[in-house]
Structure formats: structure tokens, C-alpha cells
Amino acid sequence: MGLPLLLPLLLLLLAFLQAGRSTKCSSKLGYEMNQPEQLSAPEGGSVQIPFSFCHPWDLPSVLSVSISWIWKKFHGEFIYNTTPPFIHKDFENRLSLNWKNGWSNGSLQISNLRREDKSLYFCRVHVTTRNHGRQEWQSIPGTDLTIIPAPKKTTQGPTTAAPTDGLRVSGDKRSSGSWPLRTEAVVAVALFSAVLKIAILGVTAYLLLKRSKGPARWLRRLELHAPNSEGCRFDSHMDQWALNHKVASSIIRVLQGMVGCAPCN
Fold first, then answer.
1. Strand (E) positions, the chain?
2. CA distance 185 to 224
3. What's the pLDDT tens digit per position in 107-164?
4. How much is the pTM?
5. Which of 18, 119, 198, 205 is spaced 20 to 30 A from 152 at the CA atom?
6. Per-residue DSSP letter, 115
């Protein structure tokens, strides 16, 4: 393919590329700035606010283009500027602009969103032309950004299990060899135990006294008629009966202390 045939193709390709980079408005308006009217994003997340603009000048007549962002109201505070570089203190390390010189569209990204970021955001474009000097325009309605509050985190403290006195609890069912007793039941059991102990001690004392008195009289009668050589047997039996009598007397005194009566002679 010769040079005469390549030249028309190169001119056609250059015209196509120039048309693709055109920033002229397709509508009858000479200037346009387009943004979404409403956006929403969760607290702690990020959001991108897209924008696009156009103007009536050809690219060769445009010397420079810069982008600015304003919030809260149409003539509000500047939060971002490309030339000179500027970021508002409330948005430090949280703003980034996805746009390059020569582009007619881009987006502003806000990261680590806070509840205080809920506001209106306006994009403004500044164009310096060869024949018309510096021109600027911005979106009138802007973008209303809504921040969705993050759900509150519920923290549960350590749970302590109440004493179950040997109970094994599984779900809603409990199994145990013994259930916890009420106060009335505990008092009744203690009273019954005390009465049972008193009865046992009383019967023991009665048997010991009966054993020490009745046979003692029978042995005394035998002792009067027994020979002196067998007196030692009576003495040993008498010692045992005396011991039984002392034990019985001690049990009686214990019973008197338990029931609270005065000692009897």
C-alpha cells in the first residue's frame, strides 16, 4: 500500500479520535454539568459521585481545566480543588478524584463515610480558553447524599449460672437425683431429726436404767445368802451396772438440755 493511500486513512483516524475527545454539548445549551440528584451509602463505607460536563469550545482552544467540589449549599465551602491542590480538613485522607485533564467525565470518591457527611455536593468546572479567558460553571441541584446509619453492635456480658444444688440443666428440661428443698421443708426435716434423736436417747436411757436397777435388787438378795468366796462375782456385776447407771444419767441430762427443762434430782 503506497503513501498516497495511507494519508487519507491517517487523516480519517485523527478526525475520529478528535471527535471522541470532544467536550462540546450535544444539546442547545452551551454549558452543562450533570450529577445524580440523590445517592445513599452506609456509614463507614464509601461512595462515588459521578459527574460529566460539556462546553462550546474545541479542545485546541482550551488551555486548562480544573475541577472543584463544594458542599452544603450552592455557594458553600470548597472541600476539594485540583488547581491549586486543596482538601478540606474534615475530609483529609478521605477524598479522591477519578478524573484527568482532557476528560469530560469522572467521579469523586468519599471514603470512611460519617454521619456528618450527609449533605449536598456540587461539582464546579473551571476552563481557561484562548479567546474567552476563564469560564466556570457548576451543577445547580447538586447531589443529595444520604448516610445510612450503621447497625448498633450489641455486646453480651459474661453469663453466670445460678447454683442448682446438683441439678443438671439441658435446654428446658432438668434432671437430678434431688430437688432443692424449700425453707419450710428444711425446718421440718431438722425438727424431725432432732425428735428422732431424743427418742432414741430416751429409749437407750430407759433400758440402761431398767437393767441397772432390777438385776441389782436380785443380786443383793443373792448376796445375802451367797458364800463369801463368791463375792467377787457380785462385785464385777455391780461395777457394770453402776457404769450403765452413769451412762443413763448422762443421757438423761443431755435430753434435759435438748428439751430445755430444769435438771431433776
1. 32-34, 38-42, 47-54, 62-71, 77-81, 86-87, 95-98, 105-110, 119-129, 133-138, 143-148, 168-170, 173-175
2. 59
3. 999 999 999 999 999 999 999 988 888 889 999 999 999 999 988 876 666 655 555 4
4. 0.51
5. 119
6. G
